Amino acid sequence: MERVLNDRFRLLSQLGRGGMGSVWLAEDGMLDRQVALKELVRQRDPNHHEEFRRRALREAQALARLRHPAIVQVYDVIMHEGDPWIVLEYIPGRSLAEIIAAEGRVAERIAAQIGLRVAGALNAAHKAGVLHRDVKPHNILLSADDRVHLVDFGIAQLTGTDPMTSAHMMIGTVEYMAPERFSGQPAQPSADLWALGVTLFQALEGYSPFRPDESDEVAATIRAVIDGAVPTPVHAGALAPVLARLLDPSPRTRMTVTELARALRAVLTVRDPIPSRPPIPRQAQAQVPATVAVPDSSARRPVRTAAERAAAILEAESFTDRLALISALPGTPGAADVVQALPAPLVGRALGHLPPAEAADLLHGLTSTALAAILAGTDARTAAGILTDLPAQAAADLIATLTVERAAAILTYVPPPSTATILRASADGRSPTLLAALNASVRDQVLRHH
């Protein structure tokens, strides 16, 4: 029997199920789009069910704070038969756990690319006061167009709110929990970085470092984490020192998200083979340097022109390699000239993998016409993030180069206050037409700020 929620969301198929709830693919009849609906599983114990209801709302609140290309977007929370259902962006693809199970392990550069995107998502979350607390391969999605998304903030912790669990209760997946959590210390951003380290080890080696025999014995896993018994990685290559610092048992000296992003960018931008360094014994990790040393590629070749740098990007063997080189451009001299020399569709596709602020920085200095050509090759949500990070007048000038349909599609994803500011800055007289082209619910929100 067909299920339709609130006369709007038609359930199509179940995408997954866990202890807390099920995720459904659904059709949004009002906006004519597919979404993911997260259903709360009914618990027999009323107290447990009430806690799960609170967690569901907490997840929606956590996601509502965040805006990053690698974090799934929350659209709404609806109530059905007294329980909340979270309406989420639908990301077709596979989890990293499914990829590891099917392929055994992932290549070094792919792992670095995934790590860089998740690091960006965690950085955005931590800056917004959100701790994920359950980073693991099952909660990292890779879409068909190579996008990476961190999902399932169901047990996230928000600063400035009461904790969801009592002081003696730990929340998370045991084999990804940092050792300090087992001594009763509260979750910190460094614990999310530890979990990402375990995840990257598993992606590179094909097995969990603290559950290598796939045993379900929780006590043995906890002992392995506390003892710091990390197996020597054999496929990590240039990422071996990164893993060593992420899996530092001390949260004070563990690699930070900024250091991680810097190290992964360096690994990805050095195209020549990087000699693997032996993994650092855990007993010597206190002596690990604060940054990961990588070969200085600038010392091997003279400074190149923008055209030569663009040609090097185009010569890269895969989109992942081209993306890595483009990702390193923001903030570098002549970046705009390099972007101008690249095909607009390639840049547009790459923008979807960058944080909005970096994407906006990458496009700084380009003409509105060039910007419009690039944004034509990216999705509306990515373009919306870039618009939001541009000055209002620059965003208005860019909107003026787009068709009404394209502009409205992008503005649908821009926060209503920002949309109102952009429309006020518009000088082409199209503001009433753009407002009319927005769907009713978005238009009403914009008008409150216009």
TrEMBL record:
Domain Protein kinase residue range list: 9-268
Biased composition (Low complexity): 282-295
Sorted UniProt keywords: ATP-binding, Kinase, Nucleotide-binding, Serine/threonine-protein kinase, Transferase
Catalytic EC class: transferase
Region (Disordered): 275-301
Residues given in the record as ATP binding sites: K38
InterPro entries xref list: Kinase-like_dom_sf, Mg_transptr_MgtE_intracell_dom, MgtE_N_sf, Prot_kinase_dom, Protein_kinase_ATP_BS, Ser/Thr_kinase_AS
A Pfam match: Pkinase
A GO term for molecular function: protein serine/threonine kinase activity
E.C. no: 2.7.11.1
Protein name as catalogued: non-specific serine/threonine protein kinase
Source organism of the structure: Actinocorallia herbida
